[in-house]
Amino acid sequence: MDMMKKIPVREQDPKVRATNFQEVCYGYNEEEAVLEASRCLNCKNARCIAGCPVKIDIPTFISQVKEKDYLAAANTIAKSSALPAVCGRVCPQESQCEGQCVRGIKGEAISIGKLERFVADWSREHGFVPEAASEKKGKKVAVIGSGPAGLTCAGDLAKLGYDVTIFEALHEPGGVLTYGIPEFRLPKQAVVQPEIENVRKLGVKIETNVIIGKSVTIDELMDEEGFSAIFIGSGAGLPRFMGIPGENANGVFSANEYLTRSNLMKAFRDDYDTPIVAGKKVVVVGGGNVAMDAARTALRLGAEVHIVYRRSEKELPARAEEVHHAKEEGIIFDLLTNPVEILTDDKGWVKGVVVRKMELGEPDASGRRRPVEVEGSDYTIDVDTVIMALGTSPNPLISSTTDGLETNKHRCIVANEENGQTSREGVFAGGDAVTGAATVILAMEAGRAGARGIDEYLSRK
Ligand SMILES: Cc1cc2nc3c(=O)[nH]c(=O)nc-3n(C[C@H](O)[C@H](O)[C@H](O)COP(=O)(O)OP(=O)(O)OC[C@H]3O[C@@H](n4cnc5c(N)ncnc54)[C@H](O)[C@@H]3O)c2cc1C
Ligand code: SF4
Q1: Which of 25, 98, 176 is the best mutation target for the ligand 1 pocket, counting ligand atoms within 8 Å of the beta carbon and taking the most?
Q2: CB of 150 closer than 6 A to ligand 1?
Q3: Using CA positions, which residue lies closest to atom 2 of ligand 2?
Q4: DSSP 3-state of 311
Q5: Does the CB atom of residue 289 touch ligand 1 within 6 A?
Q6: What is d(CA 450, CA 154) in angstroms, rounded to the nearest whole number?
Q7: Residue 450 Cβ contacting ligand 1 at under 6 Å
Q8: Using 50, 70 and 90 to split pLDDT, how confident is the model at 129?
Q9: Atom 8 in ligand 1: which residue has the minimum CA distance?
């Protein structure tokens, strides 16, 4: 064994997986996990912990894997993370814990994410249940939204003894984990649901089909239903569009709608009554994780798929692993290209996209080189479906129905990073609703901060 190199992880063959929705990555088996754990240097100054937003004690759990004490490893991780099987699969480890790993200086970083996933999958298969609180506080807290921010906040508060109810607008809990990230990256029944069940086992109640701001307001929850504090973890689900001609045509989707129809409404299964106009030739506009997920979903639904992105490969914001998987599966990348018009047929359906070539100029405010249009370079790609994956912002429903709740110019709720406190007393917030679209682990960290803030607030009352 070469101690400088990662133990490779087994994956589904790209040609086979391009036609199914089963998970791409198989993860480590026990033997592979123990071998990979044995590469860890168990550093005294463990830089990997500094790179983890929720500060998992990484060297300790890895040494427990090496000793084959998987239950101890699960307990170590559970102290910091309520969703390890999710994070082990979707966290951008290469820029967090693994990006800081000392092993990575001269060789390849330890596969911390794959080891976390191994422990989480082992503990689920062996019926590991997190400990519920023994003493109750006798105070009710409402959590709005059941994504990673809401689930983490609710789980932490339940462990402290609060009576917690999550209100979720959709008919299934999980937020983006359920409706956004596709099955082939994050299996719903096998992985997401059991982690949500673990939060329920801590005593958290989850009420679905309740839209806060419509079914009931924050003021009513506090004044009439006896909730002493509220955590808003309502995410950033409102899609952005380009504002180009033809964008209202039939066959133009936001990535959110396309993925929700596939993931939540199971459009890819013949036994469900909620179909999707899948498309035969699809353009996905954008270069982030959402664009990769939409493109790889369209591919699996039978389409030829182009990703149209206005910068170069170097600037693609998606995780390197996702870009690599998308290429392996046959997604075509039209880089340094930007749509300027969507063409329609006489019935109003998409029949093509006019795109313009771009080149990179001077860096802009984000530090990335600004794309500049190349005059006279327009050409048309014949397609029947266009999916816009240009980012999202928070839905203003809650802020517009809650007096005194401050938001910024991006419609994000203004909240203290340390404790989630908003401009309204007793109301806390975190996750994408505060930061705009970000990551699972940052939403979890914000949920944790919100739980701390609520506990301090209610302990003072
Ligand atoms: C397609 C896609 C792929 C992604 N891939 C990755 C990835 O690989 N790695 C990564 O780290 N991150 C990824 N992300 C980002 C990540 O999923 C989000 O940053 C994270 O889920 C945010 O968590 P949250 O709890 O703040 O919000 P969400 O997960 O959005 O959950 C918010 C919940 O609140 C509910 N809600 C909204 N309004 C109301 C209301 N008025 N009343 C009641 N309920 C309400 C929503 O229905 C939703 O269930 C991806 C996002 C998308 C869309
Ligand atoms: S930095 Fe890398 S080698 Fe060091 S303890 Fe963390 S995972 Fe192990």
Answers
A1: 176
A2: yes
A3: 101
A4: coil
A5: yes
A6: 9
A7: no
A8: confident
A9: 90
How far is 71 from 338, CA to CA, in rounded Å?
Answer: 50
In this structure, which ligand is nearest to the CA of 432? 1
> What would the pLDDT profile of 33-74 be if each residue is shown by its tens digit?
999 999 999 999 999 999 999 999 999 999 999 999 999 999
Q: Which ligand is nearest to the CA of 233?
A: 1
**Cβ–ligand 1 contact at 431 (below 6 Å):** yes
What is the average pLDDT across 449-456? Answer: 98
> Atom 4 (ligand 2): residue with closest C-alpha?
43
Sequential DSSP letters for 14-25: HHHHTT--S-SB
User: What whole-number distance in Å separates Cα of residue 54 and Cα of residue 68?
Assistant: 24
Between CA 127 and CA 403 the distance in angstroms is 45
List residues bridging with 142 in a β-sheet.
165, 230
Specify whether the CB–CB gap between 388 and 255 falls below 8 A. yes
Whether residue 148 has its Cβ less than 6 Å from ligand 1:
yes
CA–CA dist 453, 228 (Å, integer): 13
CB-based contacts of 54, cutoff 8 Å, min separation 6:
80, 81, 441, 444, 445, 448
b/e 211-245 (16+ beta carbons within 10 angstroms → b): bbbeebbbeebbeeeebbbbbbbbbbbebeeeebe
